[in-house]
UniProtKB/TrEMBL annotation, chain B:
Protein name, entry field: ABC transporter ATP-binding protein
SMART domains noted in UniProt: AAA
Bias (Basic and acidic residues) ranges: 257-268
Pfam families assigned: ABC_tran
Key word Signal present: no
Keywords on record: ATP-binding, Nucleotide-binding, Transport
PROSITE patterns, per the entry: ABC_TRANSPORTER_1, ABC_TRANSPORTER_2
InterPro entries (UniProt xref): AAA+_ATPase, ABC_transporter-like_ATP-bd, ABC_transporter-like_CS, ABC_transporter_ATP-bind, P-loop_NTPase
Annotated region (Disordered), positions in chain: 257-286
Taxonomic source organism: Fimbriimonas ginsengisoli
Keyword Hydrolase applies: no
Top-rank lineage group of the source organism: Bacteria
Record field: transmembrane: none
């Protein structure tokens, strides 16, 4: 087991030769792309499922079922469909986070106090305006929890994918360390992966969440 | 005070299905509210008063009968019938002013105009200084004032109020009774107000209509014109006496004429203060 100094040295080496930054850039691009698709599809899908009994019985049950499937199980399918390329990884990331985003948004909209919608309806608000001006802002706190969870899933799915599927990226850098028998590099990359995860969770989503909770008067989470 | 008929409820009936059997929520209820009138619908919980209000608001459908505003039948919710809910139902993601602006935007007003008018409506409910406060920063009474401002901002033909003060403490409530009478006069509003509190009903209303459900058939079971001089306060002796009469009618179903005979000697205030409202326990909805 290498000591912290050794790991730091390895981290410095990876930084110096540029391989770490290049890997971080590739991984971040992948996770952002996949995550963007998940949020753009998952949020509207979650709202639709929550608002329509027919969709809830069909798509809703399907999504709930898919939740039981770890996202990495989609990799073989993705490789057969898309070949050995970024699209396959993207697919795995989307499948990993889309389901959790959809389900959290659906739950959030479902458990919304009916008072807001009733009040809006008496003011003559309906259709898309109701979704845009009332349903979305009203469910924002739970949507935020949903998309935060979705990010964690996307990040995990990406790492799993990159470990198994050889191409550039942080997961790949981790595997390279293993192949070289360089324990210090393995640990250094693990530290970076965890640091990125913690940064997004605490700094990006943490601040966003506390701003919204403050604004809505929900108190500290 | 009264022009033509503003709101007409024509033999509205509604049933609810519960566990295999149907329950009458409303049986053949007819009611008219004149323009500028402050009408109170009073009854114990479960008498169908909230259901009737929801039907007028368009949030519920009647099984039969019609609701007409200024002569034209209505279906579905619309901003000609604004509603003030028990919990206010203000949008917590907006400030007080933005909540009022939300209503103004539904009327198609531009952004600048909305801001200006929102200020006027907040001033009307004496909350001009709290325009930029978030909903959770306001007290319960302030929230109901904003809710009233929001409803009035729609310039509705009828203002519907569903036990809007029942979640407030007694002091705040009394303050708002005075305020609401002033606002009603200033805004020249037509109000249909639902409550189970007979004191509240007499303090506020021009006319109190009693809903009861003898033999499980909820319908209008009495009408009480209130001629006591305004502004009224809840502890006025006249208010208490009238409230007592309505409370007895609500409980026993005896009409006014019978009551007059029973109470030849006018009861004293002390007695009136006790138990004038049998429905005032913890009742939710109605």
């Amino acid at each position: 087991m290498p000591g912290p100094a050794h790991v730091a040295e390895s981290l410095w080496g990876l930084l110096a030769d540029g391989s770490l930054l290049a890997s971080v850039a590739v991984s971040m691009r992948r996770v952002c792309e996949g995550y963007a698709v998940s949020v753009l599809v998952g949020v509207p899908l979650g709202i639709l499922i929550a608002r329509s009994k027919a969709l809830e019985d069909t798509v809703g049950s399907l999504v709930a079922g898919l939740q039981a499937l770890p996202s990495i199980c989609w990799l073989p399918l993705a490789l057969l469909w898309f070949g050995l390329n970024d699209t396959a990884i993207l697919f795995v990331v989307v499948m990993g986070s889309l389901v959790s985003v959809t389900i959290s948004v659906q739950d959030g909209v479902h458990n919304l106090s009916p008072g807001y919608v009733r009040a809006a309806r008496t003011m003559g608000v309906r259709g898309l305006a109701l979704v845009h001006h009332v349903l979305l802002p009203a469910s924002l706190p739970s949507v935020l929890t949903g998309i935060k969870l979705g990010w964690a899933y996307a990040w995990r799915a990406l790492m799993a994918g990159e470990l198994l599927f050889v191409s550039v990226g942080l997961g790949h850098l981790l595997m390279t360390g293993r192949e070289l028998g360089d324990m210090a590099q393995v640990l250094a990359v693990m530290v970076v992966i965890a640091a990125i995860g913690i940064f997004t969770d605490r700094v990006v989503f943490g601040n966003l969440e506390s701003y919204v909770r403050d604004r809505y008067g929900l108190g500290r989470a | 005070m009264s022009g033509g008929v503003k709101l007409e409820i024509e033999s509205v009936s509604k049933q609810f299905a519960t566990a295999g059997c149907t329950v009458d929520a409303l049986r053949d209820v007819s009611l008219q509210v004149a323009e500028g009138e402050f009408l109170i619908l009073v009854g114990l919980s479960g008498c169908g008063k909230s259901t009737l209000l929801n039907i007028v608001a368009g949030l519920d459908q009647a099984d039969s009968g019609r609701v007409k505003i200024s002569g034209r039948p209505v279906s579905g919710p619309g901003r000609d019938r604004a509603m003030v809910f028990q919990d206010g139902a203000l949008f917590p993601w907006l400030t007080a002013a933005q909540n009022v602006e939300f209503a103004l935007r539904q009327r198609g007003l531009g952004a600048g105009q909305c801001r200006l008018r929102a200020r006027e409506y907040l001033d009307l409910v004496h909350l001009g200084d709290f325009a930029d406060a978030h909903v959770h920063q306001l007290s319960g009474g302030m929230r109901q004032r904003v809710a009233i401002a929001r409803a009035l901002a729609l310039e509705p033909e009828v203002l519907l109020m569903d036990e809007p003060f029942s979640a407030l403490d007694a002091q705040t409530r009394e303050e708002l009774y005075v305020e609401l009478q002033r606002i009603w006069l200033e805004a020249k509003a037509t109000i249909l107000f639902v409550t189970h509190n007979t004191r509240e009903a007499v303090t506020l209303g021009d006319r109190v209509v009693l809903l009861r459900r003898p033999n499980g058939r909820p319908s209008v079971q009495g009408e009480f014109p209130i001629t006591i001089l305004r502004p009224r306060e809840i502890d006025d002796t006249d208010v208490a006496e009238m409230a007592k009469r309505i409370a007895i009618a609500m409980r026993d179903g005896r009409d006014l004429a019978e009551l007059e005979r029973d109470h030849e000697d006018p009861p004293k205030t002390r007695r009136l203060l006790r138990g004038d409202n049998p429905g005032l326990g913890r009742s939710i909805g109605g």
